[in-house]
Amino acid sequence: MTRIAVIIPAGGSGSRMGPGAVPKPMLQLGGEPLLRHCLDRFLERSDVRWVVVALSQELLESAPAWLRSDPRVSTVAGGTERGHSVRNALAAVPAEADVVLVHDAARPLVSPAVIQRCVQAAAAGESVVAAVPVVDTIQEVDDDGTIVATPDRHRLRAAQTPQAFPAEALRAAHQRAAAEGVVATDDAGLVARYGGRVSVVEGAPENIKITTPADLVVAEALLTCRTS
Amino acid sequence: MTRIAVIIPAGGSGSRMGPGAVPKPMLQLGGEPLLRHCLDRFLERSDVRWVVVALSQELLESAPAWLRSDPRVSTVAGGTERGHSVRNALAAVPAEADVVLVHDAARPLVSPAVIQRCVQAAAAGESVVAAVPVVDTIQEVDDDGTIVATPDRHRLRAAQTPQAFPAEALRAAHQRAAAEGVVATDDAGLVARYGGRVSVVEGAPENIKITTPADLVVAEALLTCRTS
Q: Where are the beta strands (DSSP E) in chain B?
């Protein structure tokens, strides 16, 4: 059985959520924190052997009990950038892991089917990103806001997470990035940067990223819709 | 006062909504059809002098009373493509119109502020598209789904509607397109194609396009949030 490690960078402050005492991973959705929704989706798989959560110092010190209740879950300190958090978490992934998934804590509505597609591809040696077709026309603008190009929408995908990698592919990319002083905002981009082939697998429209208060309203509606 | 004409292409079947007897512009949101939400937002402005709605043959024949209740509203037959619908509607816009706005019936949550920004720019002679920053990373893929490029997200905008034009700019572009046999899916693209400068004005994240049943759930949540 494929041995899966999951990395969840959850160090973000969520500044676009507006001022508030609750760090983004702990925002409530359907009565549970965003981070817990994510954790539960991965922990329900028996082939997930390790989950490493990168947390802000504040959250590390006040980590709630549910975060410690499954022995497969460990925590590390996040960094100033997402790339640092993933790097710290990757260092805590045991060498026996075959596949590493990286998933944003801000995407609590990830479905088992999307996770399965990512796992399947990575277990077959591919580096992949869950992604969906782009609904709106995408325009490229210059500094003045003048539209300078309209890329063919049918060739565009909106990237989500999970991203999934054969463990050695992700480790190799991060080692090289560390040596070169590169901090990636995106792991798939990092693998591609060093010549790795990265492709998309089908994500899900409801696998939205919680960025603004309106997104939380939307997520509540989607959650109700799913569970009713 | 600027004399504004609004074109609403509402001929779409909404095939992605799944099978059902209700044409997309007549889908209910908060107890009112999508199309009515759109109409109301424009008709509340006194400088909107004409609204031309392009409808499918089926809807033209069964048009509800509220569609006929404001004398500023007229209807025309839509075409097989969105471009045909806009062209038919534009032919019904009186010559006195200074500014023409084009707005999708599938965007019922358009706000007065977004409409105002579009009007203001077009009244000043600019061709504009309401647009928002792109939240997700956008990937460009080839036919196999391999990621071939990651365009700089900060230069990308997701286009919405309204699009707004000085009337003569839109007419000139459509006349030329008709002469050349070009059918545009997008009016801003058409104006740009013939050398016109088109720029973006700030849209709104909640001005979503209703494409799937999940979008309708999301729109209900956003509407409740707005009115509560």
A: 4-10, 28-29, 32-33, 48-55, 73-77, 99-102, 127-133, 138-141, 147-149, 156-166, 198-202
